[in-house]
Write a structure and sequence with these properties.
Keywords: ATP-binding, Coenzyme A biosynthesis, Cytoplasm, Kinase, Metal-binding, Nucleotide-binding, Potassium, Transferase. Pathway: Cofactor biosynthesis; coenzyme A biosynthesis; CoA from (R)-pantothenate: step 1/5. It is found in: Cytoplasm. This is Type III pantothenate kinase. There is one protein chain. By secondary structure, the protein is α/β, with parallel strands linked by helices. It is built from seven helices and eleven strands. A six-stranded mixed sheet has the order 6-9-8-7-10-11, sandwiched between helices. Strand 4 (about 50-55), helix 2 and strand 5 (about 70-75) form a beta-alpha-beta unit. Helix 3 (about 95-105) crosses helix 7 (about 230-244) and helix 4 packs across helix 5. The mean pLDDT is about 95. Bound molecules: adenosine-5'-triphosphate, pantothenoic acid and potassium ion.
Length: about 240
């Protein structure tokens, strides 16, 4: 069994896999890392590897503590990936984006693939049908949009995510909900339309903490899977073992 851990900028996501099968997944905050990993390893005593992909600021030591029980491995830019990296600054490319691009390459061979990860940031990652990773986009996520409207103005309240009642926001809160939610939905649909105009045979994957909320609001047909990063991390690690 393999325990995969995705350290994001807001939360930590983890999942235990047996082969390709996801047995259970977990979401927790950075402060609860030790306790959660301990409990997971206690529950899944046959776990042999702990595989980490991190873009957040958690010390490696927090994972290395478990080295007595499992092999701890940090996925990095030095691993083998199933695509050619066409990013002009490959060393600054987020490891989460690389893992997502790898997962898309494994799961949808021969397609033009666009992965959208709606978390703290919304990232777009494009792998073309020749397995070349070309890059994409980085934009603020839903929570970050609410927060920045409040943090950088005098009068705007900090609201939490809510479905806007209408396109036309008829109050301060409804205007904010419309701006944040409708804004991001139009943005994602707009990106998808533009990408689809570039080439045919496109598959769109949506993942991240806001997957469910966004998926039902998009006009485009997408493949929604909030566990896509963890599944991709498991596949990337299997691929690495095979290529070692
Ligand atoms: N319980 C929750 N706590 C925080 N955010 C949540 C929760 N449930 C859903 N969300 C949504 O998830 C989004 C954050 O996504 P996610 O947890 O995937 O981000 P993350 O951990 O920072 O990952 P990444 O850094 O890869 O984006 C927020 O915009 C928020 O709306
Ligand atoms: C964009 C985020 C924050 C998304 O999690 C992460 O992938 C990251 O820190 N990336 C580094 C910059 C880049 O990907 O080009
Ligand atoms: K993200």
């Amino acid at each position: 069994m393999i325990l995969t851990v995705d350290v994001g900028n807001t939360r930590i996501k983890a999942a235990v896999f047996e082969g390709d099968k996801l047995l259970q997944h977990f979401v927790f905050m950075k402060e609860e890392l030790q306790k959660n990993i301990e409990n997971i390893l206690k529950k899944f005593i046959n776990t042999s590897h702990l595989v980490v992909a991190s873009v957040g600021n958690v010390e490696k030591q927090a994972f290395l503590k478990f080295e007595k029980e499992v092999v701890v491995y940090f996925i990095s830019h030095n691993d083998s990936f199933p695509f050619v990296n066409g990013y002009e600054t490959p060393k600054t490319l987020g490891i989460d984006r690389m893992v997502l691009a790898a997962g898309a390459t494994f799961q949808f061979p021969g397609k033009n693939r666009l992965v959208i990860d709606a978390g703290t940031c919304v990232t777009f990652d494009f792998v073309n049908e020749n397995d070349k990773y070309l890059g994409g986009a980085i934009a603020p996520g839903l929570q970050l949009r609410y927060k920045s409207l409040h943090d950088f103005t005098a009068k705007l309240p900090l609201l939490s995510l809510e479905s806007p009642k209408d396109l036309v926001g008829n109050s301060t809160s409804q205007s904010i909900h419309s701006g944040v939610v409708n804004g991001l939905v139009y943005e994602i649909d707009g990106f998808i339309d533009e990408y689809r105009g570039l080439c045919s045979n496109f598959i769109i994957i949506l993942t991240g903490g806001d997957t469910e909320f966004l998926a039902k609001r998009l006009k485009n047909t997408i493949f929604a899977n909030s566990n896509f990063l963890l599944e991709s991390l498991n596949q990337t690690f299997q691929y690495k073992i095979k290529n070692d």
